[in-house]
Every structure is written in structure tokens, then in C-alpha cells.
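Subject: sequence -> C-alpha cells, single chain

Hey, anyone have a minute? Need the predicted structure for the following. Not urgent.
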Amino acid sequence: VAAIALGGSAAAAAEAIVAFRAAADRAKKIVAAAVAQKEEAYRIRASLLSEIDSGNERCSALADVANSLYDPKDCEALRKSAADAEAALTACRVELLTVANQWESATLAFTSEQGPHSLRRAGTKANLTNQHSSRALASSGMTPEEANAARRERLTAALALVRSAEQVSVAMLERKRAMDEARAEFQGSLDLASERLSAIQVDVFIIAGIKTVSSAVAAARDAIFAAQKALQAIDPDPVKAAVEAATASVETALATAQSEAARLAAMVTLDESEKTLVEIQYQAQTAGFEEKLTPAIAVAEDAIATARQACAYPNVHVLQTSTQRAVDAVNGCGELLEAEQARKRAEEKARFNKLLGRFQKMDADNSGSVPHFARRGKAGGGAAKPLFRVKRVNVVDENVAGVGSGCDVVPPPEESDPAGDDEPAGVATPSIGAAPGPDAAPTPPQPAPQLAAAAPTTPPPAAPQPTAAPPHTNGAAAAAADTSLEEWIEANKLTKYAAEICAMADSLDDLREMTDDDAEELIRECGMARLAARRFKRCL
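Reply:
Had a minute. Here:
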């Protein structure tokens, strides 16, 4: 239409239209290629920016690792490496963003000519920055492909700095891990040493007057404290040396405590041995064995004195040996005392059995109706003398002439026999229990004189008839035969232990069959006191 209006032909207008359409198609293709290129550029830029962001995150992690390191030098070196890598990545980011923004320069220029005031100002600032960066890139004299390759190399170098810093951090973390393991191991050793050291009862040794143990324990505690402080070091060698020194100090304290404990035990044993020896000496004096036990007691006393002198020796083995000798000497005294006591008990038992046999024989001899001592018959078989002789009553003649039944005057009685006591006249006192002499003969009865026929005959009072005396037996044997077990217990003041004794024996015969071991067992079961046990053995 425009060509026709200008006076051209229609053919020329058609050609112009075709040419315009061809130009529009080419422009469309160019725009499509540009858009595709822009999208590829966006993709590449996103990939590169992702790598840069990953590198920055790795640099931040390296900074955190540097803060956790023990060695200040390692911490500073790692921080510097991380900072250098982060600076290189930042430079790559700026360069990449500058190149990516060149595509939008035309749009920003158009925006600076048209649009609101704020957009024009932002577009002007961006154009100036892009122009400065573009001039810096243009002055390098490199083609765009060479510039892209250079940018890629710089990014690769920045990422290589990050990887190098990470490798350094791995070595540093390995040293830290080894130090942590060493600290954990050393801390366990120190805890074990402290626990073993706390097992020592220092107060017991202080009460006993032993100061070496408390000094050794104090030195061990100081060594443990020094090792605890050394755990904060960055080098494991000094820590190891400090822990070994603390462990050695604890072992020394334990050895000292063990040695002094053995010394203290030996001293306690000496005290007990001395008390036992005093008890043995007292029992020997009480039982009358002092002369036989005096040499053995003197040897035991010398052994105890020698062991007392060995208490101050540094080597506790000397004290233990001396203490064992003293204990053996005291035990020898005790065995000798027990042997003497057993011998004495055997002698007393034999003496008792001998007396018992004698009494039993006497009882067998006196088993007849008439005691043996009362049998006074002649050896030729004469008649035996009676045990008792009763005098017959003498008849007294009384003159009753002139005394009738109505007479109030009673003649005075004649004087009684001066040999009698208060018996009436004419009545003789019988002699009871007294046997007549060998030559005495029984008094024949006197014939009663004839009284007057007028006087009544009064029969004399009958003389009391004496009772026969029981057969005479030995008192000890009779008491032993008639005494029951309960009476024996009460007589010997053992009523407190009557239940146990009756449970052991039913009669005195059972007690006589008891051995020394039975007696000791009964004493233990009854829980007899020492004096009561001694009385019980003596009564057996």
C-alpha cells in the first residue's frame, strides 16, 4: 500500500512485503536462538553458582572446625585457608554475575530512558557497573571463549583451595581425635587411681601413730591433681608422663599402706599374745603349775620383747618373723598348760575312783544285818556279845506299917541312888547304845521281898525298851549312794546350769563316765563362767 501510494507498482510492494516477512522470520530465529542461548547461560550460571555456594558452605564448616581445635596454631592456619578459599569463591561469583548481567544491559538502558524515576536510577547504576566490568574484561584482550575458560579455571582454583583446606582440617581433626582418646584413656586411669587411693583408711594409721601412710597418700593426691591439669595440654606425651607419675605415686602409697597394715596387724597380734600369756601365767599360778611353766613363760616373754624391738625396723618382714616366733612361744605355753591341766584332771579322777572303790568295798563288807565293828564274838565261835544291856529295875522294900488307906501322912521317900540323875528311887537308868565291857556280866534279877499282907502291891513302872541302832556304815559312801544328781548340782552351786547338766547325764554314775572332752563340750554349751567351769571340773 505504501509502495502504491508512493507511485510504485504493485509488484514492488509485494516484493517489499516478502522481504519484510523474511526479515521478520530471521529476526524471529535470531530471537529464538538468543532466548535459547540465554536459557543455556542461565543453566550454566546456576550450576556455577551452585558450586560457589557449596564451596562457601564448606568454608563455613572449616571455620567451625577451626574453632573446635585444641592447638591454637592449627586453628589459625585452618581459618586462614578457609578465608583464602572463600575470597577466591567470592571473586568468581562477582565475575560470573557481571558477565551474566551484560545480556540485560539493553533492557537496563531502555529502562534508564523510560519508566519511573526509581527504575531509571537503578538502571543507570547497573549500566555503570556493567560498563566498568565490561571494560575490565575487554582490556584483557581475550575472546569470550577464552574469558569463559579463564573464569572456569579461576573457579576450579578456588574450589581447589577449599579442598586443600579440607585435607588440612582432616589431619587436624585426626590429631584432635587421638588427643580425645588419649584424654579419655588417661582420665580413666586417673579415676581408677583415685578410687584405689580412696580405699586406704588413713585415719586408722593416724590413730595408730603411723605417719608414713598419710604422707604417701598426700603425695599421690598431688600427683593426680597435676595429671588432671596436664590433660588440658595439646601434646599427649606430657599428659602420658603425668598420668604415669600419678599412677606410680598411687602404687607407692598402696605398697606403703600394705606394709604398714602388716606392721599394725603384727603389733595387734603381739598385744593379744601378751594378754594370752598373762592369762596362762595366772592360770598356772592358780593351778600350781608355775614352776613347770616358768621356763616356757620366760622364753615367750623374751620373744615378745624381741618382736617389740623389731616394730621400728623399715622391713616389715623382720617384724612378722619375730611376731610369729612370739606367737609360737605363747602357743607352746598354752599347750604345756593344757597338758598339765589334763594330767591333774587324770590324777584327780584316779584318786576319786580309788576312794570310790574303797567305799564300795566297805559297803560290800558291811552289807550284813550287824555291822562288822559290832561283831565281838570269840574267834573260837563263842556267843556274840549283845549290842545293848539294859539293867533290870531293883525292887525297893518300903515300910508301910502304920500307914493305912485313911492316913494322911506319907512317909518321906528314901534317898535315891546317887548314881542316878532325876529318876525315882528304885528305878535304874538304862544305858542305851553303850556296849558292856568284855568282862562284864549281866546282873541277875533280884527276888522281890515279901510285903506285909495289909499293903497293896503296886507294880513298878515298866522300863522303856531301847530300839536297836541301825547298822553303822561309812558316811561318804552312804552320802554318795543316797545323793541324787539334783542334790549334787545344788550342793556344788551349779543350779544355774542344772538343765544342761541333766540333759547330758541322768545320774551321778553318768557324770563319772564323762571325759575331759565331754566336760569341755558341756562347759561350752552351758556358757559357764571361768570360775564356775573350774569348780565343775574340780567336782568331777
